[in-house]
């Protein structure tokens, strides 16, 4: 099998409005779809832990174009959802990362907008990578990376 890159990252969120403020307003993703989907009677319940009748789904692009990666946020507000975000020493997807240019400037810009960082920009990987971590409204870790020249 040959892959061509990441298609999308899908995140379950507890509060879509808070998550949209984070991913769209703070990080700059563009909302391209926002809809309510009926899930009862569809194939989706086969992929759920608990049964839900509907969900709100929002698709966001950082850069729209053919084969560009995108985010999908889904909120099930018909019934309480379960689960907690995990940390780096637990099984499962514990974070995802985006390349940025001028991480120190991005860090200052996001802090000025109210972002709370878990880890400020730090040079790692034998001095080849500058990384910072922040958590989204559900506590999911988001890493911002910049290669160090």
Topology, please?
Elements: E1 8-13, H1 16-26, E2 30-38, E3 54-61, E4 70-75, E5 95-99, H2 103-112, E6 117-124, E7 129-135, E8 141-147
Parallel strand pairs: 1-4, 5-8
Antiparallel strand pairs: 2-3, 3-4, 6-7, 7-8
Describe the protein's architecture and organization.
17% of the residues are buried. Strands 1-4-3-2 form a four-stranded mixed beta sheet, covered by helices on one side. A four-stranded mixed beta sheet has the order 5-8-7-6. The mean pLDDT is 93. It is built from two helices and eight strands. The chain has two domains: 8-75, 2,3-Dihydroxybiphenyl 1,2-Dioxygenase, domain 1 (Roll), CATH 3.10.180.10; 95-147, Signal recognition particle alu RNA binding heterodimer, srp9/1 (2-Layer Sandwich). With 149 residues, the protein is mostly beta strands.
| Helix fraction by DSSP (H/I, runs of at least 4) | 10-25%
Q: Span from first to last CA?
A: 33 Å
Report the average pLDDT across residues: 93
Low-confidence stretches: none
Largest sheet: 4 strands, mixed
Number of helices: 2
CATH topology of the largest domain: 2,3-Dihydroxybiphenyl 1,2-Dioxygenase, domain 1
Summarize the structure.
This protein has 149 residues and is mostly beta strands.
Short descriptors:
Signal recognition particle alu RNA binding heterodimer, srp9/1; single chain; 2 domains; 8 strands; 149 residues; globular; mainly beta; 2,3-Dihydroxybiphenyl 1,2-Dioxygenase, domain 1; 38% strand
